[in-house]
UniProtKB/TrEMBL annotation:
UniProt protein name: ATP-binding cassette domain-containing protein
Pfam families referenced in this protein's UniProt entry, alphabetically: ABC_tran (PF00005)
Originating species: Devosia ureilytica
Domain ABC transporter: 4-243
Record carries keyword ATP-binding: yes
């Protein structure tokens, strides 16, 4: 049973067809590398899955149950989380406070409710340990490496018990060592049965962790195949149009 199945998804903005008849299945615990040139439709597809855009036509299925998302909160409640390229984290807060941002734990003292910082730190520590990250709950984000910041953003998805995580260029603009750290985080998500859609222009990173490669060109899906059966040369050809379909 697929974690997520897209059936003939089309998205148009007036006369512009951003996506045309895209069908794709993603299995539980599968990492799918979503690739394509700028303007190929990757961001639009992610926004359809995440509830930012309603498809013009086509259907979405979660565990073979048809779903409709009218806003991002609908997708989040259904178990879909997005880690955007800018991470949407606050530099002046600790790792634990960022993990719980907008979902803070509270406890009752007499007639008052106060934020349970100790509880948040303990739970954040559990999530970082699950990800095998060295990030510490009390650390301020502004002092963290790019890899540690990704760990904070990914821990936030685990807090909501997500079944699907969409990651937008998680290895862009970070060092080689930090790239290795982020790829390990993705592997840990997969090992916990979470499906991951990895959007990236960095082909070596995609082939290192992806089980499946999906390629978009001009809004159409031109390939969806096992990574082991593809190659960087083939993907480059598909992105540029030198290869029509695979």
């Amino acid at each position: 049973m697929s974690a997520l199945r897209l059936a003939n998804i089309t998205k148009s903005f007036g006369a512009i067809h951003a996506l045309t008849d895209v069908s794709l299945a993603i299995e539980p615990g599968e990492v799918v590398g979503l690739m394509g040139d700028n303007g190929a439709g990757k961001s639009t597809l992610v926004k359809v899955i995440a509830g930012n855009f309603a498809p013009t036509s086509g259907e979405l299925f979660l565990s073979e149950r048809r779903v409709e998302f009218h806003k991002p909160l609908d997708a989040q409640r259904a178990g879909i989380e997005v880690v955007y390229q800018d991470l949407a984290i606050c530099n002046n807060l600790s790792a634990a406070s960022n993990v719980f941002l907008g979902r803070e734990l509270t406890r009752q003292i007499g007639p008052f409710q106060i934020i349970d910082y100790a509880g948040m730190r303990n739970r954040a520590a559990e999530l970082f340990a699950r990800l095998k990250s060295e990030t510490r709950p009390r650390d301020l984000v502004k002092r963290m490496s790019g890899g540690q910041r990704q760990a904070v953003a990914i821990a936030r998805t685990l807090l909501s018990d997500a079944s699907i995580v969409l990651m937008d260029e998680p290895t862009a603009a970070i060092s080689v060592r930090q790239v290795a750290e982020v790829l390990n985080l993705i592997r840990h998500l997969r090992d916990h049965g979470i499906a991951v859609v990895l959007i990236s222009h960095r082909m070596p990173d995609v082939f290192e962790v992806a089980d499946k490669i999906a390629v978009l060109r001009r809004g159409r899906l031109v390939a969806s195949k096992k990574a082991a059966d593809s190659s960087a040369e083939e993907v480059t050809g598909l992105i540029t149009g030198a290869i029509e379909m695979a």
